[in-house]
Amino acid sequence: MAAPSFDPLVDLDGLWTPELAERYLPIPGMPPVKYECLDGKLIMSPREGTANMFAVWTLGKYLEPTAAKSGNRFYLTVNVLLDVKKWIEPDFVVLKQSGQGRVWIPHEDVLLAGECVSPSSKENDRVNKPARCAEVGIPYFMRVEVNYSDGRVNVELLRLQDGKYRPQARGSEVEIFETELPFPLSFDPAELLEP
Fold first, then answer.
1. 149-179 residues labelled b (16+ CB within 10 A) or e (exposed)
2. Please, is 62 exposed, middle or buried when counting C-beta atoms within 10 Å of its C-beta (0-12, 13-18, 19+)?
3. Predicted model pTM
4. Per-residue pLDDT of the chain (195 residues; tens, 9 = 90+)
5. Where exactly are the structural domains of the chain?
6. What share of the chain is helix, strand, coil (3-state, %, to 5)?
7. Which helix (DSSP H) or strand (DSSP E) does residue 171 occupy?
8. How many angstroms separate the CA atoms of 187 and 16, rounded?
């Protein structure tokens, strides 16, 4: 009789931790995906389309130098540890200091978490992730929404106040984005649209 085979997606359901993730992820044979975890349950979502990736890359060109002037560091896609069985992988973050080569970033080190809303994970990007970030006290959350076919883009910066995110600044394809907090930042969101 053959021994039962081990399937990490089934056998570790509800048990995922960073240690198990380092041991078993990525899953061999699976297409590239974003791995996140909520209460030990693995959440997998497809990588972003080119419109979102272009927007994040272009936005990073604005965020990186101005964040650095304030002593912070901009990163694309890192693992933010919310607690031992809960982590997210924002599309971009601004850390309060250098990541120093770490794979798992404690939420206390995050100044700003950002998401480029995807059609496949709209509720997660618009509702769940900001709520999780607010729960652990991440001071700022930035949301970018790109509609490539309509030529529209919206950028919204939210600031944590009294345990909830409140609007700090907004911009769109027809309105410049400007804010002084958490560091001075001004750009034309229309430049985030993929040519």
1. eeeebbbbbbbbeeeebeebbbbbbeeebeb
2. middle
3. 0.91
4. 566 788 888 999 999 999 999 999 998 888 888 899 999 999 888 877 899 999 999 999 999 999 999 999 999 989 999 998 999 999 999 999 999 999 999 999 999 999 998 876 676 667 788 999 999 999 999 999 999 889 999 999 999 999 999 999 999 999 999 999 999 999 999 999 999
5. 8-43, 48-192
6. 30, 35, 35
7. strand 164-172
8. 39
Residue position matching structure tokens 């994970």: 121
Q: Which tokens go with 44?
A: 């997998």
Structure tokens at 147: 């509609």
CATH superfamily of 48-192: tt1808, chain A (3.90.1570.10)
Stretch (H or E) spanning 134: helix 129-136
